Amino acid sequence: MSLHLVTLCLALVSDEPIPAEKAAVVTREQQKAQADVGAKYGNKKSSELSPDERRQMVKDQSAADKAVLDKNGVDAKQWARESMKKDRAGYAEQKALVKDLADKEKKAADEAAKNGKKPAKDIQVQKGFSDENPVTLEEKEVEGGAVAVEKGLPSETNQDQEAASEQDRLEKGAGASDDSPRAAPKSSKGGRGR
Questions:
Q1: pTM to 2 decimals?
Q2: Is 40 domain-assigned?
Q3: Which pairs with CB-CB distance under 8 Å and at least 24 residues apart come from 23-28?
Q4: Residue 92 covered by a domain
Q5: I need a surface site. Which of 37, 65, 123, 159 has the fewest CB within 10 A?
């Protein structure tokens, strides 16, 4: 008997409409989450992505929406129901509230910039490293506040290149005085070497 009572109470609680202000906050946070996911995939159209990337992007968008709903304590089914029930006036009201929230955020960021406080930047997470995408441990700033960028290869690389060239020259010079025939190089494809 008490189980039925608890179920009835939960059903009544979940049927309460979501306040317009809370719906606007959820919508704004969903917009930001979707923008983050889009930025992760280079803000490309879905037609420009491979099928695997598209599938992963959809999963990431779904997870972002679910995280926003969970953060704000809104049930996904209730959110979908209320979205479907809204009329044009309800959508217009929510759109105006979302625009007000975006304006407030922009105003707060501008004030923080005026006061010398920088808004929190997104931290870039890099998985792995390679020659094309090196990891920078420290960045030294120059007097103008810009980061110094070195162009070309480091001096150690040039020294290594010169040493390797010298070694090749010595080997070729020693091989030229040899009267013994050299073996033909093997094919890299694994064939007979035709």
A1: 0.51
A2: yes
A3: 23/82, 23/94, 23/97, 24/94, 24/97, 24/98, 24/100, 24/101, 25/72, 25/101, 26/68, 26/69, 26/72, 26/74, 26/79, 27/94, 27/98, 28/98, 28/101, 28/102
A4: yes
A5: 123
